[in-house]
Backbone:
């Protein structure tokens, strides 16, 4: 491991797992599966119920930047305790409304800007004349 990778893993959490997470996962984690993005999903060994939480602890180690929107719908249901069995062990039927992953574009030029936003290419909708400003004392 080169120095840059070492320092990144030691000091940051958003570029994959930290050393602390790696040690915790090695001691307490059981690999459950991996999704199409290379994210790896874990739970407490043997499906043990965590005394602190009252349920089985589950977590994800992201492949690359930690971006929660990169969890596919079928894994989202498992990681949030909606279903008991992870996707590889149960048949997942994609819903018609499931969309392919798009990264979170907030803060980028590709971010959604609603009509009327001052950031929407400097275009504002034409005034309709139905607005009356409030005046104190009226």
Residues:
């Amino acid at each position: 491991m080169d120095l840059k990778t070492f320092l990144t893993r030691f000091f940051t959490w958003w570029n994959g797992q930290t050393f602390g997470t790696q040690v915790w996962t090695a001691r307490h984690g059981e690999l459950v599966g991996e999704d199409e993005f290379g994210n790896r999903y874990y739970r407490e060994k043997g499906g043990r119920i965590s005394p602190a939480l009252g349920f089985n602890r589950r977590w994800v180690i992201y492949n690359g930047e930690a971006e929660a929107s990169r969890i596919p719908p079928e894994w989202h249901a498992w990681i949030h305790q909606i279903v008991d069995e992870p996707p590889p062990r149960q048949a997942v039927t994609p819903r018609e409304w499931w969309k392919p992953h798009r990264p979170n574009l907030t803060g980028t030029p590709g971010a959604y800007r609603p009509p009327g936003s001052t950031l929407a290419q400097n275009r504002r909708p034409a005034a309709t004349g139905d607005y009356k400003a409030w005046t104190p004392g009226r």
Summary: The two ends are 72 Å apart (CA to CA).
